[in-house]
User: What shape does this take?
Amino acid sequence: MITLVATVLAGLAVLVVTAIVIGVTDHRRTDSWRRIAEHRRREWERKQRQLHGRSHRVDAWGDEDSD
Assistant: This one.
């Protein structure tokens, strides 16, 4: 019985330590991830302006189905 309790407590301790390590590591990398996200957003917005910013070219192919 003591072995089972010790195993469960050891498992819980491993989970707690793992959670702390992951939390600290994630907190340290927050600024880096935000900079990456900001850069990707600026690039996406630039591409959207390139794709949709200029006037759209209307093609005459659509007129054939209007009979």
Remarks:
- The mean pLDDT is 85.
- The two ends are 85 Å apart (CA to CA).
